[in-house]
Structure formats: C-alpha cells, structure tokens
Design goal:
0% strand, 2 domains, 98 residues, 5 helices, 62% helix, single chain, mainly alpha
Length: 98
Amino acid sequence: MVVQINRNDNPQIRRLTLFHEVFHIMERSSPWYFPRNMANDGMSFREMLADYFAMCVLMPVNLVRAKWFKLNSVDMMARTFKVAPSVMDVRLKILGLI
C-alpha cells in the first residue's frame, strides 16, 4: 500500500493527512473494519475516526493539557504541535479545554 501526500499542501496538513491515511491502513487489517455508514454531516464515520486518530497521534492528550495551561493560545499551541490552528481548535474543544 502506498500513501500519497499532496506536496502542494502545507506541512501541517501533510502531517495530518499522513496519520489519517495510516489509520485507514491499520483499519483495513483489523477484524473490526468499520462499515461505510454516514454521520449526520455527510462525513463517513470512518473518516471521522481517521481524523480523530491523526489528532491523537499529533496532539497527545497529556501533552496538550500540559502545554495549554502554560500557553493558553490556540495559535501558540498550533505552532508548538506543528498543526493548523483550525485543527488545534478542534482538538482543544474535543478535550474540553475551550
């Protein structure tokens, strides 16, 4: 299997995409392969899980919590974890920090 990353994307998006696709590779070899069902917003459940996996790998909960209480800025957190501010915003909301 080959993962292709768009070189025209910025580095933050390429990193997220890489781990998103790694999830799909691992998922296909799992006995719990997720069916193709749709979430309320039209995004498949598998795609949401892949995005969540990528966020967990790139922004581990313990490190995010520790850094958030020191930095308390979405932009500074995004730079620290080398992700887009919009992705950091989602992660912080998932963790209940904002």
